[in-house]
Amino acid sequence: MTAELVRGQNHPLSQARLEVRVSAGRPIVAGATLSDEQGRVRGVEWVAHPGAPTLPGLEVSKQAAADHRLAFDLDALPGTVHRVSVLLALPTGVGGPVRFGAVAAPFVAVTGLDGSEVASYTITGLDTESAVVALELYRRQGVWKVRAVGQGYAGGLAELLTDQGLSEARQLAGSINEAVAQGLARSVSAPPPRTADTDRSRQAAASAPGPDQSYAAPQGVSGTVPPQSPYDAPGPQGATVPQTGYPGGPAQPDPSAVTQPSAPTSGPVDYSHPGRQAAAPPPPAPTAPPAAPGQPAQPVAGDATGWSMEERLYNQVWGMFEDLARTTAAYRSAVDFADSRMEQELDKVLSDPRSRIGGQGDAAREAAQAKRAGLVDQARAALDRDLAQLAAEAEVVEPALPAAYASWDNLVWHGYRVPMEIPMALRLGDLRLPESENLSIPMLVRLPLERGLWIDSGRAGLDDPLADSDELRRLAMDTAVAHAARLLAVYPAGEFTVHVIDPAGSGASCLAPLVRSGVLDAPPAAGAAGVGEVLARLTQRVDLVQMAVRGGVADSLPPDLDTAEQLLIVNDFPHGFDDRAVTQLRYLADEGPAVGVHLMMVADREDAAAYGPLLDPLWRSLLRLTPVPDDHLADPWVGHAWTYEPALVPPGSRVLQQVLSQVAAARRSWNR
Questions:
Q1: What distance in Å separates the CA atoms of residue 608 and residue 171, rounded to the nearest whole number?
Q2: Which of 12, 292, 399, 407 is deepest in the core (most CB within 10 A)?
Q3: At CB < 8 A and 24+ separation, what contacts does 363-366 make?
Q4: Backbone dihedral angles phi then psi of residue 281, each to the nearest 5 degrees
Q5: Bigger pLDDT: 172 or 279?
Q6: Distance from CA of residue 482 to its chain's centroid?
Q7: Confidence grade of residue 500 (pLDDT, cut at 50, 70, 90)
Q8: CATH no. of 3-185
Q9: Which CATH architecture has domain 447-671?
């Protein structure tokens, strides 16, 4: 039976190998410290954190995430360690809440390797604190116990580590925040939270087979049904988040639904759409035809909740993404459990010298390996069943996607018409996992963009170290043009403007579709003078709109000011940029998104390294994408490394020219 602890309460631990699972509803940092008998942390080597996630006997997450799984082997800890403290902290310097009082209460649970819950604790009563000691695993008279602590620190990790006796606390806290910021820059945005009555897993639970009909994974996942735990709890409801749109520009959607790591929030969050009248109930979602007995329900496009088909499809795509993340986590956990069980059985047999003589040891080894293979086969069967269901859903969802969500080879583009309204989101590519090579999930980001994009034209970090540099630069520019064309295509006429900086003209051939179609207000800026002129104009626009918003005098803006969303494409950075231009670029990256000015950098980070740490915040504030498939993005739940595939126009297709010609014609009509 699980012990539900309150602050200060303890509970004995009967197992040495454990997991501590954390659920917070938004990305947080998880770590652990080792302490001696006096409760002191002797040095930085006694702290496990995202920058150094592994210590003897424990391993923590490598990035900030909404869910964490921390692994402990208490028998493998050094003999001088008498206490292990589990730490939680809110990321700093990347936007978002800076105190636990503004987020849902974190939930922590101690479990065995088989998923059985030993003790749990919901950390309540926090307010201004930004770091907290959640639990302690401590040794008393040779017996390990867990204690619910819940001690918060308004001074963050630096104050927490100082309180534990670490002299280098401030320096270590800075390095942890740096590692977390870099990890968040690689993270995929999380979807809006699901409510209890619309969660896909709960809808499936009613018709899911019983425990005797499907394999039960160690963490409690049965078949296609993810665990129903506090991890799936709905977010807070009832408060209103003020909109942050700029005067004259399009209203922004609910920022709570755009869960980019840099999105600022404060206080309780209302997940309803601002400005939308709720007098009439939403139209009913499509329903699937009845399934045959014992068979899963037939998937239907748009069967998620929402006020429109577009919103339903958006929620359905994110539901598929989350389901794939969690079912893969269940499979990987099952494999880890099978490996651990086999090691335990072999250790038990081989620890007896008599078992190592003759064929008894070989027989025991074969039996343990056979048990492991059986467990892995069962887990793989459950994963394959889930993947087949998701693949069937993808087959009906993909053709039904609107243009903003669809791939370039979708037939919806052949019937394209310039829209009258801004869509909820935009497709930037596809995501897949190694276990699901044949299943890709569209990567959707909410509009307007809250983060700029960094299209990486370098080889650093790519899977193929022999990739041709010139070819990568060309592919990166093609990717940028495809994204820019999609942004132009999904906005109403006159509500999106694209500027291009190409200092040396190296991207002329890739930019030709934008130039020839006439969708650009001006040709790409070249040379130092052109770079300075574009940056000065956009910087002035940001300043004017900011002053108007802060002063509450939106009607005082100059009549010739372009209030449309602005996108600046910068090719071959940092060539052609002096110190002033770099400073202006940093300013646009920091201040521009809030007033409708967005960056799309096409650059090699190694080339930009000459500017030193000046550009590190710029790199972290942008979402890194690659022109070739690469596994550099992570999900906000279990931290899987997802392979990103860019959304490129198929070779030989004329769909890009056809779409841009319609956009240009609509712009000309709008300007008359």
A1: 26
A2: 407
A3: none
A4: -70, 155
A5: 172
A6: 23
A7: very high
A8: 2.60.60.30
A9: 3-Layer(aba) Sandwich (3.40)
Strand, coil or helix: 306? coil
Mean pLDDT of 58-84: 88
Domain boundaries, the chain: 3-185, 213-403, 447-671
Comparing CA positions, the residue from 656, 353, 607, 319 lying closest to residue 487 is 656
Q: Indicate whether 645 pLDDT > 90.
A: yes
Instruction: Inform me whether the pLDDT recorded for 198 exceeds 60.
Output: no
Chain centroid offset of residue 536 CA: 33
Tokens of residue 266, six digits: 């404060």
The whole-angstrom separation of Cα 403 and Cα 418 is 10
- Whether 3-185 shares its CATH topology with 447-671 is answered no
Q: Which two tokens stand for residue 400?
A: 């039904």
Q: Is the pLDDT of residue 217 over 50?
A: no
Give residue 524's identity as a one-letter amino acid code. P
Evaluate whether 30 touches 158 at the Cβ level (below 8 Å): no
Query: In terms of Cα–Cα distance, which of 589, 581, 580 is closest to 616?
Result: 589
The answer to whether residue 16 scores a pLDDT higher than 80 is yes
Q: How far apart are CA 329 and CA 323, in angstroms?
A: 10
- Give which of 559, 565, 449 is closest to 498, Cα–Cα: 565
- Tokens at residue 152, please? 């918060």
Beta-strand runs (E) in 90-243: 107-112, 117-122, 131-140, 143-153
Q: At what angle are helices 655-671 and 508-517 packed, to 10 degrees? A: 50
Instruction: Kindly report the length of the chain.
Output: 672
Q: What backbone phi and psi angles, to 5 degrees, belong to 671?
A: -80, -15
Angle of the 508-517 helix axis to the 469-490 helix axis, nearest 10: 20
Closest CA to 182 of 93, 264, 258: 93
Mean of the per-residue pLDDT values of the chain: 80
Looking up tokens 């809808």 gives 203
Q: What is the layout of strands, in order, in the sheet containing 453-456?
A: 496-501, 565-573, 597-603, 453-456, 623-625
Average pLDDT for 575-593: 88
Rounded distance between C-alpha atoms, residue 54 and residue 17, angstroms: 15
For residue range 128-160, list pLDDT tens digits in order: 999 999 999 998 888 899 999 999 999 999 999
Buried b (16+ CB within 10 A) or exposed e, 2-13: ebebeeeebbeb
